[in-house]
Amino acid sequence: MAVDTPGNPFALSTDEIARLEAIREALKDPSPRRIGRLDQWGLADAYETYAESSTYSEVSITMDDGTVLDASLSVPRDLAPGQSLPTVVMPAPLIGIGHRAYLGMIPRLTLGGYAVLAYSQRGLAASKGEIHVAGPLDVTDATTVVNWLSQHDAVDSERIGFFGSSYGAGTSLLAAAQDRRIKAVVGTSAWGDLFTSLYENGTRHLKAFEALVELFGEDRCSEEFRGIIQKIRANTIDDEVREFARVRSPKHHLDAYNDNRTPILLTTAWHETIFSVPGVVDLFTGLTGPKSLLVQVGDHGNGELPGLAGLFSKPTEMAYRWLDHHLGGHAGDGREPRFGVRSEYMHNLLSDLHHADWESYALPQERFHLSDAVAGERDARLVRGEPQADWTRSVKATGQGTEVVVAPKLVQTGLVERMGMPHVYKTAEVDRGLAAIWTTDPLERTMRVQGEPAVRVTVKPEEKEATIVAYLLDCDPATGKAAIITHAPYTLAGEQPGQAATVTFSLQPAHYVLAAGRQLQLVIDTHDDFFADANTTPSAIEITSPQGAESYLDIPLDAQG
């Protein structure tokens, strides 16, 4: 799995690869020449201090079935007789360099009084074996790693925590559900429910799925996983697929976390395109022990990337505090961790809001009714007040979408968005034959969307099956340009062609501030390359609002304080 594979949304830059390799060489051989190479990134002093007080070694750990995992161990020097340390275990994210992705964090943790073991799960990077996608064998491996560590004189087996990003977050959370020795967990860019990350409202997240499969490398996957890959590609979402996802979903292990009162810190992003944000929120909400949730601007992995490189990031700074508080090290800034929900809003990276829980975080819903278009206008209105019935809007399914999409590029669009440059959607130029659009009047004051919007519409396709995709946008009426707030797909399967069905579905959670004068805009079309749609092409889909089941959009909306 090369880290620079063309099209790889998780690819590291040449400079990032060079920096990590230079760090690795300096850790293995802390000579003045090796450490001096780090000066070009401003890291020489930090690693010189680390080399004087710590040891780093690359090790192999043999699993119960003989599979050998590649790992590294970092331990402070000159421990007093009998002294033992809190320990952080770091399963690798899904990247070709495996556990070396954490090289930038290891000195900070070790200087903070921790023993640190980072490892690549079976099948990843230099580790042997096949990839099981955080399956039961990977969980058993995590326990074997803890057993191996517990034999080390410097390791306090009563103070072991796990930190993982992305794939490593899933491994960390699932290991903690099975091994009571794990006393704290940090999962950045985590997943809570693997099934909803693959299959949302009857719709496959095929683009993200194929990107992950490419990163895994099918030739390294287990026979079980290769079978699941083929079923998902063929849209055979049966009990085997559901069970495969269930055992790999931390959300389904809540009893274990709550019985153990495992302290869990989770992070995700508002425009996450890889793992389901509602799944992470559901996991967080179901936890009854010490817990914290951070939601940031951007996409998968964007928030913690600088921190993994040894720079500042909210996720890693929160992780240091979290581990210090629950394990007793001193890698953080000495401040207590924040429990509850911590969030940024679009597109302000400096925003930092705190709520005790998700219930107090989410705003009450305000209902906007979908109306018909006024004579002479091509778009309809989102209106407050009375339900709007007895209208029909028709959109064509051609297999081609509009320019309104979840994200032009997985991960990378969110990274640019995190830099303060959200993608611009020219909704004034959208083909109204391919999409139906509803728009509010210009907002009289600054408003905020905070929580989970929901849509109800009645859908009547020409064929048995149909897919629609709903997008909520922030539109500038002066230019017709917009930015995406949130989205969701919905696929319905009728018993016969032309059968109408009223469907209600939630959009992804959002935290977005709209300036006065802007308009909320709901766009519904039939195709987005991010999803696998079920539409027969060409065909038509009617969106209607019958008496008694009028269409609406519920938005968690309030004036910005």
Output the radius of gyration: 25 Å
Number of strands: 26
Q: Helical element count?
A: 16
Q: Give the fraction of residues assigned to helices.
A: 25-40%
Mean pLDDT: 95
Q: What does the main sheet amount to?
A: 14 strands, mixed
- Choose one word for the global shape: elongated
Keywords:
single chain; 561 residues; alpha+beta; 14-stranded mixed sheet; 10-stranded mixed sheet; FrsA_esterase; Xaa-Pro_dipept_C; Xaa-Pro-like_dom
What's this, in brief?
With 561 residues, the chain is α+β, with helices and mostly antiparallel strands.
Give the SSE map:
Layout: H1 14-28, H2 32-37, H3 44-53, E1 54-62, E2 68-76, E3 85-91, H4 106-111, E4 115-119, H5 136-150, E5 155-165, H6 167-178, E6 182-188, H7 194-198, E7 199-200, E8 203-204, H8 206-216, H9 223-233, H10 239-247, H11 254-260, E9 264-269, H12 277-286, E10 291-296, H13 305-308, H14 314-327, E11 340-345, E12 348-355, H15 358-361, E13 365-373, E14 380-383, E15 392-397, H16 412-418, E16 425-426, E17 435-439, E18 447-451, E19 454-461, E20 465-476, E21 481-493, E22 501-506, E23 510-514, E24 519-525, E25 539-544, E26 552-559
Parallel strand pairs: 3-4, 3-5, 5-6, 6-9, 9-10, 10-11, 14-17
Antiparallel strand pairs: 1-2, 2-4, 7-8, 11-12, 13-14, 13-26, 15-25, 16-21, 17-24, 18-23, 18-26, 19-22, 19-25, 19-26, 20-21, 20-24
Helix pairs in contact: 5-6
